[in-house]
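Q: What structure does this chain adopt?
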Amino acid sequence: MQRNLIAWFRSLRFLQLAVFILLFLLILPFIGGHPYISFIFQLLLLNALLVSLSASDRLPRLRWVLVALWTAGMVLLSKYHLFPGPGPHRLELVMAGSFYLLFLVGCIAAILTYVFRSPRVTLDTIFAAVVAYFLISIIFATFYSILYSLNPASFNLSLTNTPEELHFLTTDMVYFSLSTIVGVGFGDILPLLPFSRMVAVVEAVVGHFYMAVLIGWLVGMFISQALRPVPEPTTPESLSPTDD
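A:
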């Protein structure tokens, strides 16, 4: 009974993480500028950590790296909020973003390794690929936030130097990253410097390339499963009468 319950929870791990990310994106505009956004973002990263650890059974070293990166980022971001120092762009914020960026890269490596090593297409592997796509967008959003923290002229944002700046910046960069990776590009947020523009182009290329590879892999696996011969049920052999 306990094993069946654990297996049931494992089959829903990527589904619940995908739903959590979607809910985070939907409520993000309503909590922009509020300190709750950092708390919810920490819960999202913790959820991604636990799911990635469960999917990285074959990568034991990566599991310890993920825990170390998440812990370092959480400590630095907590220090930024609890003990604010002078200046709008503090070293702790940039370092925390860098650790989180590396952490998300490791999560994607663990998830995609699980996806492409799966012997067949299941609901779990499909939502694992969806989660990886969302995490790629969050990686670029984190990188954009680091760029803006180092040089506010990277984007056409006019944020005030207040403690709420980080919360508004998170909302704007997640929105810009999502619109870039799907190729929408509304134009309300623009990269102004050559490097930030090139990063946005790279994200658009990665997003389209990812979708092409993912769809090709899913179609190939589906065809392979459909053409795989179904084993015939074994039946006890009937005893044939022997001739005298």
